[in-house]
Amino acid sequence: MPSTRRRRILLWTWGGLFAFLILGVVMMRIGSHRFDAPDPVHGSVMRVHGQVSDFFGAKADGRVVLFDAGADAEGRGLDLLLGALKSGREDVSDIFFTHGHGDHVAAAPLCPRARLHGGSADADMMSKRGPIVPGFARYMGVVLPVPAVSLTDALAAPTDVPVGGGKSVTAVPFPGHTHGSMIYLYDGVLFVGDSMNFEKDKLTFAVGVFSVDTKLNHERIAALPSLVKLDDVKVVCTAHGGCTPEGQTRHMLDDIIARAKS
Predict the structure, then answer these.
(1) Which of 90, 179, 176 is nearest to 132 (CA)?
(2) Which pLDDT score, from 0 to 100, does residue 142 have?
(3) pLDDT at site 34
(4) Residue 25, pLDDT score
(5) Deepest of 6, 106, 160, 259, by most Cβ within 10 A of its Cβ?
(6) Rg (Cα) of the chain, in Å, rounded?
(7) Beta strands 202-205 and 235-238: pairing type?
């Protein structure tokens, strides 16, 4: 009798866990299609907040520059953002990927004229010629499948990429979250993807279970003053926690840099 009861308990336990897993997958897929109305960040930059991840866009000489492309392969968030910029999909000239995880690249194939910029070390993961890393992120790839994305500009060194109107995007390799993680500075906004997060009024480090090398992530953050001119950074935008308030950004950057060095 006791063994029968234990089997029933185990059966109900595993059944409950399976149901919870299925519910989580369903909710995640539904959430990938849900976005808030775009809102201004700083200068010409706009943000569209999604339940899974945020991404950003700006108008440059009549063209649109995107920073990441969200988790929705059908482009709902993309069209909201482009509508706020009074543009369409064919107006997107450049997309800059902070890294190659699927929740940041999904809508890119919907922009037929865009040049696709990203870290060279993430190129195989994005094009599906290589595995999703780290292993935990691989499960997210099953939950939220996205199309393959092939970079037209695989970046391996710091560079300035002209985007029109006399403006350029400063692109800096920032490995740690993924091997090919990048950060970008444009129009006073530093786009960091998942290499930093914004939680409870402070910037925090990359989430360990989704990162390939947290030690390297800390080292790159500690080296940030040598990588970008901090005086040019007015706002830091993350992919899941929003953007820092302009008046507090420098203090928050100095704080996370100090913590990374300790």
Answers:
(1) 179
(2) 79
(3) 77
(4) 43
(5) 106
(6) 19
(7) unpaired
Give the 3-state secondary structure of 149-204: CCCCEEECCCEEEEEECCEEEEEEECCCCCCCCEEEEECCEEEEECCEEEECCEEE
Give the pLDDT confidence score for residue 6 in this predicted structure.
66
Calculate the CA 32 to chain-centre distance: 13
Helices (H), 32-130: 76-84, 123-127
203 with 248: CB under 8 angstroms? Answer: no
Give the helix ranges, DSSP H, for 38-99: 76-84
Strand locations in the chain, DSSP E? 39-42, 45-48, 55-60, 63-67, 92-96, 115-119, 153-155, 159-164, 167-173, 182-186, 189-193, 196-199, 202-205, 235-238
Largest CA distance in the chain: 79
Q: How far apart are the first and last CA of the chain?
A: 58
CA distances from 180 to 102, 119, 127, 155 (A): 14, 4, 13, 9
Amino acid at 211: S
Are the beta carbons of 240 and 53 closer than 8 angstroms? yes
Question: Tokens at residue 53, please?
Answer: 């991840």
Residues in the chain: 262
Question: Can you read off the two tokens belonging to residue 221?
Answer: 């953050």
State how far the Cα of 139 lies from the Cα of 101, in Å rounded to an integer: 11
Question: In angstroms, rounded to a whole number, what is the distance separating the alpha carbons of residues 84 and 197?
Answer: 25
| Res. 33: pLDDT tops 80 | no
Tens-place pLDDT, residues 102-156: 999 999 999 999 999 999 999 999 999 999 999 888 887 778 889 999 999 999 9
Query: What would the two tokens of residue 235 be?
Result: 């706002």
Q: Is 255 in a helix, a strand, or coil?
A: helix
Rounded distance between C-alpha atoms, residue 126 and residue 232, angstroms:
30
Asked if the model's pLDDT at residue 229 lies above 70, the reply is: yes
